[in-house]
Amino acid sequence: MGSGETTTWSTGPQADHTYGTSAGHYLYTEASLTSDGNIAQLQSPLFRDRNEAKCINLWYHMYGVGVGKLDIQLSESGKPRTSLWSESGG
Predict the structure, then answer these.
(1) Which end of the chain has fewer CB atoms within 10 angstroms, the N or the C?
(2) Taking Cα atoms as reference points, which of 70, 76, 84 lies closest to residue 40?
(3) Is residue 26 within a helix (H) or strand (E), and if so which, with residue range?
(4) What are phi and psi of 63, to 5 degrees?
(5) Whole-angstrom Cα distance, residue 88 to residue 62?
(6) How many whole angstroms separate alpha carbon 53 and alpha carbon 60?
(7) DSSP classification of residue 13
(8) In angstroms, what CA-CA distances link 81 with 1, 13, 35, 74?
(9) Could you tell me the pTM of the whole model?
């Protein structure tokens, strides 16, 4: 988790989306010095009630050399992962 500028120059947002200041917090993965095919994963807690609709809200920033794809996936026990949404960066 971070706040303010990212550690690699000119790769992150200028300000927090919610407050419009550099005081907000965010999660990020460093992609500037990685090799093709590297994967970073952020996992959410389990959704236990299968009968209730689910919603994911997020703001994302994909800028800089090495940024690949943001892929939101559903993983259910005993089933293959399902891609729900994806966006390419760079």
Answers:
(1) N
(2) 70
(3) strand 25-26
(4) -140, 140
(5) 8
(6) 23
(7) -
(8) 26, 30, 24, 6
(9) 0.65
Q: What dihedral angle (degrees, nearest 10) is formed by the CA atoms of 41, 86, 47, 19?
A: 80
Cα–Cα dist 90/80, whole Å: 28
The end-to-end CA distance of the chain, in Å, is 22
Q: What is the mean pLDDT of residues 57-71?
A: 79
pLDDT tens for residues 25-39?
777 777 777 777 778
CB 31 within 8 Å of CB 64: yes
Q: Which two tokens stand for residue 32?
A: 């500037």
Q: Tokens for 60? A: 């994302």
Residue type for 22, please? S
> What is the number of other CB atoms lying within 10 angstroms of the CB of residue 11?
19
Which tokens hold the place of 64?
């800089």
Return phi, psi of residue 24, to 5°: -70, 170
